[in-house]
Amino acid sequence: MNSNAQKTCIHELPTDQCAYCRKPPAGLPGRVWRTRYGTHMHRWADCNALLYGHHVSRKLDLNTHAPRPVSLAEANSAGLDRCSNCLPENVPPGARACRVRFNGYWEDGFVIELLPNGNALIDFQSRGERMRRVFHHWKNR
Questions:
Q1: How deeply is 110 buried, as exposed, middle or buried, from its count of CB atoms within 10 A (0-12, 13-18, 19+)?
Q2: CA 20 to 30 Å from 57, out of 9, 50, 64, 77?
Q3: Is residue 40 located within the same domain as residue 78?
Q4: 58 phi/psi in degrees, rounded to 5
Q5: What is the domain count for the chain?
Q6: What average pLDDT values come out for the chain (141 residues) when binned by 10 residues?
């Protein structure tokens, strides 16, 4: 047997080329959340941006649909964009999901670095603006 032979998946493709079988890119989950007619994929079903979208839809008297989990491959093949709140482009692969209290609201974020004094450098989005700040009080997601 050739030691250079690639493994094939159940779809009869090399595993690293199959959108359904290859590992997701570093920092992205294998499963994401989407709504029936939504245009974005989310890391969490209770992402603040997703919940805000539902709030706006209800105010406009539009139907809302519960988020459902789908594979990252399915979300990509449906042409969904990444949510800038919970799947931002600039978060390092090892960052841990968290929530921080900022201006009276709990915001979704990511621990970028734990600091020696118990503080943490957090990447988060508030009112559409992406920020990095040091927080003493934060909680794991």
A1: buried
A2: 77
A3: yes
A4: -65, -40
A5: 2
A6: 61 70 68 92 92 92 93 89 88 84 90 89 89 85 73
Domain that holds residue 38: 8-87
Does residue 46 lie in a domain region? Answer: yes
Enter the pTM of the model. Answer: 0.70
Contacts of 50 (CB under 8 A, 6+ apart): 33, 35, 38, 40, 42, 44, 67, 83
Asked if residue 75 and residue 35 are part of one domain, the reply reads: yes
Token readout for 67 is 């988020």
pLDDT (0 to 100) of residue 65: 92
Same domain, 80 and 134: no
- Do 80 and 111 lie in a common domain? no
Determine how many CB atoms are found less than 10 A away from the CB of residue 93: 8
> What are the beta bridge partners of residue 99?
108, 139
CB atoms within 10 A of CB 25: 8
Distance of alpha carbon 121 from alpha carbon 141, whole angstroms? 15
String of DSSP letters for 70-99: EEHHHHHHTTPEEPTTTS-TTS-TTPEEEE
For residue 123, the model assigns a pLDDT of 92
Which pLDDT value is given to residue 127? 83
